[in-house]
Specification:
Blueprint: H1 3-15, H2 20-33
Protein name: Transposase
Organism: Actinomadura verrucosospora
Length: 43
């Protein structure tokens, strides 16, 4: 992931104004790149 892509994902997560699906996807991608397990999903 490029630095620019990471920054865009961080903005999505910080703002929290995106759709729930987009917010969760951004969180999962950031967690994956950071080597952390992704947050649990609700079903």
């Amino acid at each position: 992931m490029t630095e620019q892509e990471g920054q865009k994902l961080q903005r999505i997560v910080r703002r929290g104004s995106a759709s729930l699906v987009r917010l969760r996807r951004a969180m999962m991608l950031l967690a994956s790149v950071g080597g952390r397990p992704s947050p649990p999903t609700e079903r």
